[in-house]
Amino acid sequence: MPDTVLPARAARAGRSDTSNDSDRGEDDSSSEESSTDGEEEDEDDDEESSDVEQSESNSASVLATSGITYDLSQLDSESEARAIVGLTGHFDVVNCRSTPAGYDFQLSDRPQVHIGADSSTCTCAVFQDRPDGACQHIFWLVDQLHGCFLPTPLSTEVSLTPDGRPDRLPRIEDLLKGNLISVATQLKWQYLREEEDGMTRTEKVRDIFSAFNRTLPEDTRRDLTETTEQARTAEECVVQGDFEATMFRLAMHDDGVFNSLCKAMPAGACAAIYFDKVQEQSRRLLNDFDQYCATGELPADPVSPGLGVEVNDVVTQLQRSVSRIEVNIAARAPHGSEGAAEALVSLLESVVARNNDPLEGNRLGRQSFHGEDEDQRNLYHLLIGSVETDSETDARHFVLHALDALPPVDLHQCANRLRDILRKIEVNRAPKPYLLHLGSLIRTAESAAAAAMGSGQKRPAAGNGNSAGYSKRTR
Questions:
Q1: Residues near 388 by Cβ (< 8 Å), separated by ≥ 6?
Q2: Structural domain boundaries of the chain?
Q3: pLDDT of 285 over the 60 cut
Q4: pTM higher than 0.70, yes or no?
Q5: How far is the C-alpha of 246 from the C-alpha of 221, rounded, in Å?
Protein backbone atom coordinates (compact mmCIF):
# COMPACT_ATOMS: atom_id res chain seq x y z
CA MET A 1 0.00 0.00 0.00
CA PRO A 2 1.59 3.31 -1.01
CA ASP A 3 2.04 5.77 1.83
CA THR A 4 1.26 8.65 -0.54
CA VAL A 5 -2.33 7.60 -1.18
CA LEU A 6 -3.99 9.97 1.26
CA PRO A 7 -1.69 12.94 0.53
CA ALA A 8 -2.51 12.41 -3.16
CA ARG A 9 -6.19 12.52 -2.35
CA ALA A 10 -5.69 15.71 -0.34
CA ALA A 11 -3.74 17.23 -3.24
CA ARG A 12 -6.60 16.43 -5.61
CA ALA A 13 -9.01 18.15 -3.27
CA GLY A 14 -6.68 21.16 -3.10
CA ARG A 15 -6.46 21.39 -6.88
CA SER A 16 -10.23 21.15 -7.11
CA ASP A 17 -10.65 24.02 -4.64
CA THR A 18 -8.11 26.15 -6.53
CA SER A 19 -9.84 25.43 -9.82
CA ASN A 20 -13.17 26.42 -8.31
CA ASP A 21 -11.69 29.66 -6.98
CA SER A 22 -10.27 30.42 -10.44
CA ASP A 23 -13.58 29.68 -12.07
CA ARG A 24 -15.35 31.94 -9.60
CA GLY A 25 -12.84 34.73 -10.36
CA GLU A 26 -13.47 34.43 -14.09
CA ASP A 27 -17.21 34.35 -13.52
CA ASP A 28 -17.03 37.53 -11.43
CA SER A 29 -14.99 39.30 -14.14
CA SER A 30 -17.35 38.09 -16.81
CA SER A 31 -20.30 39.25 -14.74
CA GLU A 32 -18.89 42.77 -14.46
CA GLU A 33 -18.40 42.98 -18.25
CA SER A 34 -21.80 41.52 -19.01
CA SER A 35 -23.53 44.05 -16.78
CA THR A 36 -22.82 46.67 -19.47
CA ASP A 37 -23.97 44.56 -22.39
CA GLY A 38 -27.74 44.56 -21.72
CA GLU A 39 -30.48 41.99 -21.72
CA GLU A 40 -29.40 40.16 -24.88
CA GLU A 41 -26.26 38.67 -23.33
CA ASP A 42 -28.17 37.86 -20.11
CA GLU A 43 -30.57 35.79 -22.16
CA ASP A 44 -27.65 34.01 -23.84
CA ASP A 45 -26.13 33.23 -20.42
CA ASP A 46 -29.44 31.85 -19.18
CA GLU A 47 -29.74 29.58 -22.21
CA GLU A 48 -26.13 28.38 -21.76
CA SER A 49 -26.71 27.70 -18.07
CA SER A 50 -29.87 25.78 -18.88
CA ASP A 51 -27.98 23.68 -21.44
CA VAL A 52 -25.25 22.83 -18.85
CA GLU A 53 -27.82 21.81 -16.24
CA GLN A 54 -29.64 19.65 -18.77
CA SER A 55 -26.36 18.00 -19.79
CA GLU A 56 -25.43 17.29 -16.17
CA SER A 57 -28.87 15.83 -15.52
CA ASN A 58 -28.60 13.55 -18.52
CA SER A 59 -25.10 12.34 -17.62
CA ALA A 60 -26.28 10.94 -14.21
CA SER A 61 -22.78 11.12 -12.77
CA VAL A 62 -21.44 12.18 -9.39
CA LEU A 63 -17.99 13.14 -8.12
CA ALA A 64 -17.39 11.25 -4.86
CA THR A 65 -15.28 12.45 -1.94
CA SER A 66 -12.57 9.97 -2.96
CA GLY A 67 -12.03 11.88 -6.23
CA ILE A 68 -13.58 9.13 -8.35
CA THR A 69 -16.41 10.12 -10.74
CA TYR A 70 -19.17 7.53 -10.96
CA ASP A 71 -21.69 6.94 -13.75
CA LEU A 72 -25.05 6.13 -12.15
CA SER A 73 -26.94 5.40 -15.37
CA GLN A 74 -27.19 1.67 -14.59
CA LEU A 75 -29.05 2.34 -11.34
CA ASP A 76 -32.79 2.69 -10.86
CA SER A 77 -34.10 5.82 -9.19
CA GLU A 78 -34.02 4.40 -5.65
CA SER A 79 -30.48 3.00 -5.97
CA GLU A 80 -29.35 6.26 -7.56
CA ALA A 81 -30.69 8.21 -4.59
CA ARG A 82 -28.87 5.88 -2.19
CA ALA A 83 -25.66 6.20 -4.18
CA ILE A 84 -25.79 10.00 -4.22
CA VAL A 85 -26.36 10.12 -0.45
CA GLY A 86 -23.48 7.74 0.16
CA LEU A 87 -20.97 9.09 -2.36
CA THR A 88 -21.42 12.72 -1.37
CA GLY A 89 -21.97 12.14 2.36
CA HIS A 90 -19.78 11.17 5.28
CA PHE A 91 -19.90 8.37 7.86
CA ASP A 92 -17.55 7.48 10.72
CA VAL A 93 -16.05 4.01 11.01
CA VAL A 94 -15.68 3.00 14.67
CA ASN A 95 -13.60 -0.11 13.95
CA CYS A 96 -12.91 -2.75 11.33
CA ARG A 97 -11.66 -6.32 11.37
CA SER A 98 -11.00 -9.37 9.22
CA THR A 99 -13.24 -12.39 9.65
CA PRO A 100 -13.16 -15.86 8.09
CA ALA A 101 -16.02 -14.74 5.81
CA GLY A 102 -14.59 -11.36 4.76
CA TYR A 103 -14.34 -7.93 6.40
CA ASP A 104 -16.56 -6.14 8.92
CA PHE A 105 -16.83 -2.36 9.35
CA GLN A 106 -18.70 -0.93 12.33
CA LEU A 107 -20.12 2.56 11.69
CA SER A 108 -20.80 5.06 14.46
CA ASP A 109 -24.52 5.33 13.77
CA ARG A 110 -24.98 1.62 14.48
CA PRO A 111 -24.96 -0.11 11.07
CA GLN A 112 -22.33 -2.73 10.38
CA VAL A 113 -21.18 -3.31 6.80
CA HIS A 114 -19.81 -6.70 5.82
CA ILE A 115 -17.79 -7.13 2.63
CA GLY A 116 -17.57 -10.74 1.54
CA ALA A 117 -16.44 -12.69 -1.48
CA ASP A 118 -19.94 -12.98 -2.93
CA SER A 119 -21.74 -9.89 -1.69
CA SER A 120 -21.76 -6.92 0.64
CA THR A 121 -24.38 -6.56 3.36
CA CYS A 122 -25.39 -3.96 5.92
CA THR A 123 -27.44 -4.16 9.09
CA CYS A 124 -29.18 -0.80 8.48
CA ALA A 125 -32.94 -0.62 7.94
CA VAL A 126 -32.55 0.65 4.37
CA PHE A 127 -30.60 -2.44 3.29
CA GLN A 128 -32.87 -4.80 5.26
CA ASP A 129 -35.91 -3.40 3.43
CA ARG A 130 -34.28 -3.98 0.07
CA PRO A 131 -31.30 -6.34 0.34
CA ASP A 132 -30.99 -6.82 -3.44
CA GLY A 133 -29.16 -3.48 -3.81
CA ALA A 134 -26.50 -1.53 -1.96
CA CYS A 135 -27.44 1.02 0.71
CA GLN A 136 -25.79 4.42 1.19
CA HIS A 137 -23.35 2.91 3.72
CA ILE A 138 -22.09 0.30 1.25
CA PHE A 139 -21.76 2.86 -1.57
CA TRP A 140 -19.79 5.17 0.74
CA LEU A 141 -17.54 2.49 2.23
CA VAL A 142 -16.59 0.86 -1.07
CA ASP A 143 -15.75 4.31 -2.49
CA GLN A 144 -13.57 5.15 0.52
CA LEU A 145 -11.72 1.85 0.24
CA HIS A 146 -11.15 2.18 -3.51
CA GLY A 147 -9.86 5.70 -2.94
CA CYS A 148 -7.03 4.24 -0.83
CA PHE A 149 -5.78 2.19 -3.76
CA LEU A 150 -5.99 4.96 -6.42
CA PRO A 151 -3.17 7.53 -6.04
CA THR A 152 -4.49 9.55 -9.00
CA PRO A 153 -8.06 10.25 -10.17
CA LEU A 154 -9.46 8.29 -13.08
CA SER A 155 -9.72 10.12 -16.41
CA THR A 156 -13.09 8.55 -17.21
CA GLU A 157 -16.25 7.84 -15.28
CA VAL A 158 -16.69 4.51 -13.52
CA SER A 159 -20.06 2.83 -13.83
CA LEU A 160 -21.70 1.62 -10.62
CA THR A 161 -23.72 -1.57 -10.46
CA PRO A 162 -26.78 -1.87 -8.16
CA ASP A 163 -24.80 -3.89 -5.61
CA GLY A 164 -22.41 -0.95 -5.17
CA ARG A 165 -19.45 -2.37 -7.09
CA PRO A 166 -17.57 -0.18 -9.62
CA ASP A 167 -17.56 -2.25 -12.82
CA ARG A 168 -14.07 -1.30 -14.08
CA LEU A 169 -12.20 -1.42 -10.79
CA PRO A 170 -10.70 -4.49 -9.09
CA ARG A 171 -12.91 -6.24 -6.57
CA ILE A 172 -12.45 -4.48 -3.24
CA GLU A 173 -12.27 -7.73 -1.26
CA ASP A 174 -9.29 -8.76 -3.40
CA LEU A 175 -7.55 -5.43 -2.79
CA LEU A 176 -8.12 -5.73 0.96
CA LYS A 177 -6.36 -9.11 1.27
CA GLY A 178 -3.45 -8.55 3.63
CA ASN A 179 -3.97 -4.77 3.45
CA LEU A 180 -6.76 -4.00 5.93
CA ILE A 181 -4.34 -2.92 8.67
CA SER A 182 -2.63 -0.47 6.28
CA VAL A 183 -5.99 0.88 5.10
CA ALA A 184 -7.18 1.31 8.69
CA THR A 185 -3.97 3.16 9.54
CA GLN A 186 -4.31 5.54 6.57
CA LEU A 187 -7.97 6.28 7.23
CA LYS A 188 -7.45 6.42 11.01
CA TRP A 189 -9.91 3.60 11.70
CA GLN A 190 -9.43 1.29 14.66
CA TYR A 191 -8.39 -2.19 13.59
CA LEU A 192 -9.55 -5.04 15.83
CA ARG A 193 -7.50 -8.20 16.06
CA GLU A 194 -9.61 -11.31 16.46
CA GLU A 195 -7.26 -12.82 19.05
CA GLU A 196 -5.67 -9.64 20.36
CA ASP A 197 -5.13 -11.04 23.85
CA GLY A 198 -5.02 -14.75 23.10
CA MET A 199 -8.80 -15.31 23.08
CA THR A 200 -11.29 -15.65 20.26
CA ARG A 201 -14.42 -13.50 20.25
CA THR A 202 -16.50 -16.47 21.36
CA GLU A 203 -14.16 -17.02 24.32
CA LYS A 204 -14.26 -13.32 25.19
CA VAL A 205 -18.05 -13.22 25.21
CA ARG A 206 -18.26 -16.38 27.31
CA ASP A 207 -15.64 -14.90 29.66
CA ILE A 208 -17.71 -11.73 30.14
CA PHE A 209 -20.89 -13.71 30.75
CA SER A 210 -19.19 -15.94 33.34
CA ALA A 211 -17.90 -12.88 35.20
CA PHE A 212 -21.48 -12.29 36.38
CA ASN A 213 -21.97 -15.74 37.92
CA ARG A 214 -20.08 -18.29 40.00
CA THR A 215 -18.96 -20.55 37.18
CA LEU A 216 -15.71 -20.38 35.25
CA PRO A 217 -15.83 -19.78 31.48
CA GLU A 218 -14.74 -23.37 30.90
CA ASP A 219 -17.82 -24.56 32.80
CA THR A 220 -20.31 -22.07 31.33
CA ARG A 221 -22.95 -23.43 28.94
CA ARG A 222 -21.10 -25.26 26.21
CA ASP A 223 -24.06 -24.96 23.85
CA LEU A 224 -23.24 -21.26 23.49
CA THR A 225 -20.77 -21.77 20.66
CA GLU A 226 -21.85 -19.06 18.24
CA THR A 227 -19.28 -17.83 15.68
CA THR A 228 -19.16 -14.78 13.40
CA GLU A 229 -18.58 -16.76 10.21
CA GLN A 230 -22.26 -16.45 9.26
CA ALA A 231 -23.59 -12.93 9.84
CA ARG A 232 -26.90 -12.54 11.69
CA THR A 233 -29.23 -9.56 11.98
CA ALA A 234 -30.54 -8.55 15.40
CA GLU A 235 -33.79 -10.34 14.68
CA GLU A 236 -31.94 -13.51 13.72
CA CYS A 237 -30.10 -13.44 17.06
CA VAL A 238 -33.30 -14.02 19.02
CA VAL A 239 -33.61 -17.46 20.65
CA GLN A 240 -37.18 -17.83 21.86
CA GLY A 241 -37.37 -18.44 25.61
CA ASP A 242 -33.60 -18.12 26.12
CA PHE A 243 -32.47 -14.61 27.05
CA GLU A 244 -28.86 -15.65 27.73
CA ALA A 245 -28.47 -17.32 24.33
CA THR A 246 -30.05 -14.28 22.65
CA MET A 247 -27.63 -11.88 24.35
CA PHE A 248 -24.73 -14.20 23.52
CA ARG A 249 -25.63 -14.09 19.84
CA LEU A 250 -26.08 -10.32 19.90
CA ALA A 251 -22.64 -9.93 21.48
CA MET A 252 -21.17 -12.12 18.75
CA HIS A 253 -22.83 -10.37 15.79
CA ASP A 254 -23.42 -6.80 16.93
CA ASP A 255 -20.20 -4.89 17.54
CA GLY A 256 -22.14 -2.23 19.41
CA VAL A 257 -23.36 -4.77 21.96
CA PHE A 258 -19.93 -6.43 22.13
CA ASN A 259 -18.07 -3.14 22.64
CA SER A 260 -20.52 -2.06 25.35
CA LEU A 261 -20.01 -5.32 27.22
CA CYS A 262 -16.23 -4.96 26.94
CA LYS A 263 -16.47 -1.45 28.40
CA ALA A 264 -18.67 -2.64 31.26
CA MET A 265 -16.43 -5.64 31.98
CA PRO A 266 -12.95 -4.99 30.52
CA ALA A 267 -10.33 -7.68 30.03
CA GLY A 268 -8.46 -6.75 33.21
CA ALA A 269 -11.58 -7.11 35.34
CA CYS A 270 -12.42 -10.46 33.73
CA ALA A 271 -8.89 -11.71 34.46
CA ALA A 272 -9.05 -10.64 38.10
CA ILE A 273 -12.45 -12.26 38.58
CA TYR A 274 -11.29 -15.46 36.87
CA PHE A 275 -8.27 -16.02 39.10
CA ASP A 276 -10.29 -15.07 42.20
CA LYS A 277 -12.83 -17.74 41.25
CA VAL A 278 -10.20 -20.43 40.76
CA GLN A 279 -8.70 -19.58 44.15
CA GLU A 280 -12.11 -19.65 45.82
CA GLN A 281 -13.00 -22.98 44.21
CA SER A 282 -9.74 -24.54 45.40
CA ARG A 283 -10.36 -23.24 48.92
CA ARG A 284 -13.91 -24.64 48.93
CA LEU A 285 -12.74 -27.99 47.58
CA LEU A 286 -10.12 -28.40 50.31
CA ASN A 287 -12.60 -27.38 53.03
CA ASP A 288 -15.14 -29.89 51.66
CA PHE A 289 -12.42 -32.56 51.72
CA ASP A 290 -11.53 -31.74 55.33
CA GLN A 291 -15.20 -31.89 56.31
CA TYR A 292 -15.68 -35.21 54.53
CA CYS A 293 -12.65 -36.73 56.23
CA ALA A 294 -13.74 -35.52 59.68
CA THR A 295 -17.47 -36.32 59.50
CA GLY A 296 -18.10 -38.44 56.42
CA GLU A 297 -20.58 -35.81 55.16
CA LEU A 298 -20.64 -34.99 51.46
CA PRO A 299 -20.95 -31.31 50.46
CA ALA A 300 -24.45 -30.11 49.60
CA ASP A 301 -23.02 -27.86 46.87
CA PRO A 302 -19.92 -29.57 45.43
CA VAL A 303 -17.39 -27.49 43.49
CA SER A 304 -17.51 -29.88 40.53
CA PRO A 305 -20.82 -31.77 40.36
CA GLY A 306 -19.23 -34.46 38.20
CA LEU A 307 -16.55 -35.22 40.80
CA GLY A 308 -16.77 -35.99 44.51
CA VAL A 309 -14.43 -35.31 47.42
CA GLU A 310 -12.61 -38.63 47.50
CA VAL A 311 -8.84 -38.28 47.63
CA ASN A 312 -8.28 -39.04 43.96
CA ASP A 313 -11.10 -36.68 42.94
CA VAL A 314 -9.57 -33.85 44.96
CA VAL A 315 -6.10 -34.43 43.48
CA THR A 316 -7.56 -34.42 39.96
CA GLN A 317 -9.48 -31.19 40.54
CA LEU A 318 -6.52 -29.37 42.09
CA GLN A 319 -4.25 -30.38 39.20
CA ARG A 320 -6.90 -29.23 36.74
CA SER A 321 -7.15 -25.87 38.51
CA VAL A 322 -3.40 -25.35 38.21
CA SER A 323 -3.48 -26.27 34.53
CA ARG A 324 -6.32 -23.81 33.91
CA ILE A 325 -4.43 -21.03 35.65
CA GLU A 326 -1.34 -21.73 33.56
CA VAL A 327 -3.31 -21.66 30.31
CA ASN A 328 -5.09 -18.45 31.29
CA ILE A 329 -1.88 -16.67 32.27
CA ALA A 330 -0.85 -16.84 28.62
CA ALA A 331 -4.32 -16.20 27.18
CA ARG A 332 -4.99 -13.14 29.35
CA ALA A 333 -1.54 -11.54 29.31
CA PRO A 334 -0.74 -8.88 30.34
CA HIS A 335 -3.80 -8.84 32.60
CA GLY A 336 -4.26 -10.60 35.92
CA SER A 337 -0.73 -11.89 36.55
CA GLU A 338 -0.78 -10.76 40.19
CA GLY A 339 -4.11 -12.50 40.76
CA ALA A 340 -2.73 -15.67 39.18
CA ALA A 341 0.33 -15.57 41.44
CA GLU A 342 -1.89 -15.13 44.52
CA ALA A 343 -4.11 -18.06 43.51
CA LEU A 344 -1.16 -20.38 42.88
CA VAL A 345 0.80 -19.51 46.01
CA SER A 346 -2.31 -19.77 48.21
CA LEU A 347 -3.05 -23.21 46.79
CA LEU A 348 0.54 -24.34 47.37
CA GLU A 349 0.41 -23.10 50.98
CA SER A 350 -2.82 -25.02 51.56
CA VAL A 351 -1.41 -28.28 50.23
CA VAL A 352 1.86 -27.92 52.19
CA ALA A 353 -0.21 -27.38 55.34
CA ARG A 354 -1.93 -30.76 54.76
CA ASN A 355 1.08 -33.02 55.16
CA ASN A 356 -0.84 -35.33 57.49
CA ASP A 357 -3.27 -38.18 57.61
CA PRO A 358 -6.64 -36.57 56.82
CA LEU A 359 -8.49 -39.32 58.73
CA GLU A 360 -6.65 -38.71 61.97
CA GLY A 361 -9.14 -38.03 64.78
CA ASN A 362 -12.25 -38.36 62.58
CA ARG A 363 -15.59 -38.75 64.39
CA LEU A 364 -16.42 -42.11 62.81
CA GLY A 365 -13.16 -43.75 63.81
CA ARG A 366 -12.54 -44.58 60.17
CA GLN A 367 -9.11 -46.08 59.49
CA SER A 368 -9.20 -45.94 55.69
CA PHE A 369 -11.35 -44.86 52.76
CA HIS A 370 -10.84 -47.83 50.48
CA GLY A 371 -7.99 -49.80 52.02
CA GLU A 372 -5.25 -47.32 51.14
CA ASP A 373 -2.34 -46.51 53.46
CA GLU A 374 -1.64 -43.10 55.04
CA ASP A 375 0.57 -41.82 52.21
CA GLN A 376 -2.06 -42.72 49.61
CA ARG A 377 -4.52 -40.27 51.17
CA ASN A 378 -2.00 -37.56 52.12
CA LEU A 379 -2.53 -34.63 49.71
CA TYR A 380 0.98 -33.26 50.24
CA HIS A 381 2.53 -36.61 49.44
CA LEU A 382 0.30 -37.13 46.40
CA LEU A 383 0.86 -33.66 44.89
CA ILE A 384 4.42 -32.75 45.92
CA GLY A 385 5.99 -36.03 47.07
CA SER A 386 8.93 -36.92 49.28
CA VAL A 387 12.52 -38.06 48.88
CA GLU A 388 11.20 -41.56 48.27
CA THR A 389 8.87 -40.37 45.48
CA ASP A 390 9.50 -41.86 42.05
CA SER A 391 10.82 -39.75 39.18
CA GLU A 392 7.40 -39.52 37.52
CA THR A 393 5.96 -37.71 40.53
CA ASP A 394 9.03 -35.49 40.74
CA ALA A 395 8.46 -34.32 37.17
CA ARG A 396 5.02 -32.88 37.97
CA HIS A 397 6.33 -30.09 40.18
CA PHE A 398 2.85 -29.14 41.35
CA VAL A 399 2.19 -25.36 40.98
CA LEU A 400 5.83 -24.55 40.16
CA HIS A 401 5.46 -25.00 36.39
CA ALA A 402 2.54 -22.58 36.42
CA LEU A 403 4.59 -20.06 38.45
CA ASP A 404 7.26 -20.32 35.73
CA ALA A 405 4.74 -18.81 33.29
CA LEU A 406 4.45 -15.58 35.30
CA PRO A 407 6.68 -12.51 34.83
CA PRO A 408 9.36 -12.83 37.55
CA VAL A 409 8.69 -9.31 38.84
CA ASP A 410 5.08 -10.29 39.59
CA LEU A 411 6.32 -13.09 41.88
CA HIS A 412 8.11 -10.60 44.12
CA GLN A 413 4.90 -9.91 46.05
CA CYS A 414 4.92 -13.58 47.09
CA ALA A 415 8.66 -14.03 47.62
CA ASN A 416 8.48 -14.15 51.43
CA ARG A 417 5.62 -16.64 51.38
CA LEU A 418 7.51 -18.81 48.89
CA ARG A 419 10.55 -18.78 51.21
CA ASP A 420 8.33 -19.92 54.08
CA ILE A 421 7.02 -22.74 51.88
CA LEU A 422 10.58 -23.71 50.97
CA ARG A 423 11.59 -23.96 54.62
CA LYS A 424 8.55 -26.14 55.42
CA ILE A 425 9.03 -28.58 52.56
CA GLU A 426 12.73 -28.87 53.38
CA VAL A 427 11.66 -30.10 56.83
CA ASN A 428 9.04 -32.32 55.18
CA ARG A 429 11.78 -33.88 53.02
CA ALA A 430 10.34 -32.87 49.65
CA PRO A 431 12.01 -34.26 46.50
CA LYS A 432 15.31 -32.53 45.78
CA PRO A 433 14.31 -31.47 42.20
CA TYR A 434 11.23 -29.79 43.66
CA LEU A 435 13.33 -27.93 46.25
CA LEU A 436 15.80 -26.77 43.59
CA HIS A 437 12.99 -25.62 41.30
CA LEU A 438 11.29 -23.58 44.04
CA GLY A 439 14.62 -22.08 45.14
CA SER A 440 15.34 -21.02 41.56
CA LEU A 441 11.93 -19.33 41.29
CA ILE A 442 12.56 -17.35 44.48
CA ARG A 443 15.99 -16.15 43.33
CA THR A 444 14.62 -15.16 39.90
CA ALA A 445 11.78 -13.20 41.46
CA GLU A 446 14.08 -11.34 43.84
CA SER A 447 16.61 -10.57 41.09
CA ALA A 448 13.91 -9.21 38.78
CA ALA A 449 12.52 -6.98 41.51
CA ALA A 450 15.99 -5.68 42.43
CA ALA A 451 16.77 -4.96 38.77
CA ALA A 452 13.49 -3.07 38.34
CA MET A 453 14.17 -0.93 41.41
CA GLY A 454 17.74 -0.31 40.31
CA SER A 455 16.61 0.97 36.91
CA GLY A 456 14.17 3.38 38.52
CA GLN A 457 11.04 1.51 37.44
CA LYS A 458 8.16 1.65 39.85
CA ARG A 459 6.46 -1.51 40.97
CA PRO A 460 2.85 -1.48 39.80
CA ALA A 461 0.25 -0.94 42.43
CA ALA A 462 -1.80 -3.92 43.54
CA GLY A 463 -4.32 -4.76 40.88
CA ASN A 464 -2.32 -3.16 38.06
CA GLY A 465 -2.73 -6.32 36.09
CA ASN A 466 -6.46 -5.79 36.39
CA SER A 467 -7.18 -3.14 33.79
CA ALA A 468 -8.24 0.24 35.16
CA GLY A 469 -7.37 -0.77 38.72
CA TYR A 470 -10.10 -3.36 39.25
CA SER A 471 -8.61 -4.52 42.55
CA LYS A 472 -12.03 -4.15 44.22
CA ARG A 473 -15.17 -5.32 42.50
CA THR A 474 -18.85 -5.34 43.31
CA ARG A 475 -20.10 -8.88 43.75
A1: none
A2: 1-55, 60-191, 201-264, 268-469
A3: yes
A4: no
A5: 13
